[in-house]
Amino acid sequence: MKYFFNFSKLAYVKGKKPRGCILCLIAAGSSSVEDLTVFEDELFIVCVNLYPYNPGHLMVFPRRHILDIRQYTDAEQTRLALLTRHTLDVLDRTHSPAGYNVGYNMGPVAGASIRHVHCHVIPRYRNETGISDVIAGRRVLVENPLETRDHIRTAFAAITPSL
Ligand SMILES: [Zn+2]
User: Fold this and answer.
1) What does DSSP say about strands 119-124 and 58-62: parallel, antiparallel, or unpaired?
2) What's the CA-to-centroid distance between 127 and ligand 1, angstroms?
3) CATH topology for 5-159?
4) Active site residue 116
5) Higher pLDDT, residue 138 or 120
6) Domains of the chain by residue range
7) Of 29, 22, 39, 43, which Cα lies nearest the Cα of 112?
8) Among 123, 65, 51, which Cα is nearest to 94's?
9) Higher confidence at residue 72 or residue 11?
10) How many angstroms separate the alpha carbon of residue 137 from the centre of ligand 1?
11) Is residue 2 over pLDDT 50?
12) How would residue 1 be classed by pLDDT, with cut points 50, 70 and 90?
């Protein structure tokens, strides 16, 4: 179900802004951040993006706090390739996008607001409205991130019993 949702109503960070890296807090299961995780294993976590560009916008990130993709171990690199494929398969099922942007922003100049390295997986749709630009400059989404999380989490459980 899709409807207009004002993201500011969802407090991703609960109460006071927590200290430290938000992705490390998510990895640690901290109660100070909203749990938007859809999949995790011993090396990686997949979660709904903090400020989704589009419905189904996910982030895939390593549990280790590293700042550059060249710091991935061979094991992480191998797992990431597999996990990225699974993530795309899941989104095909849950959101049926027409295409994807998959990639990294490394460094503030490149648009990274979180230093902990994370790969964006952004579904693209044929009729993107850009509605968030239209309505009074407020960020408005067409999908509740918590419903997105539940939907994608279920799909992950269904098609990736073991990575
Ligand atoms: Zn971190």
Assistant:
1) antiparallel
2) 35
3) HIT family, subunit A (3.30.428)
4) no
5) 120
6) 5-159
7) 22
8) 123
9) 72
10) 31
11) no
12) very low
pLDDT above 80 (res 49): yes
Amino acid identity for residue 146 in this structure? L
Share of the chain above pLDDT 90, in %: 55
d(CA 23, CA 145): 17
Structural contact between residues 127 and 142, judged by C-beta atoms closer than 8 angstroms: no
- Structure token digits, residue 25: 């807090």
Strands 140-141 and 119-124: unpaired
* Listed range (47-51, 85-89, 98-102, 133-137) with the worst mean pLDDT: 133-137
Query: Which of the residues 95, 118, 120, 151 is marked catalytic?
Result: 118
Cβ atoms within 10 Å, residue 152 = 25
Rg, the chain, Cα only: 15
Q: Map tokens 């009729």 to a residue.
A: 127
Mean pLDDT, the chain, rounded, equals: 83
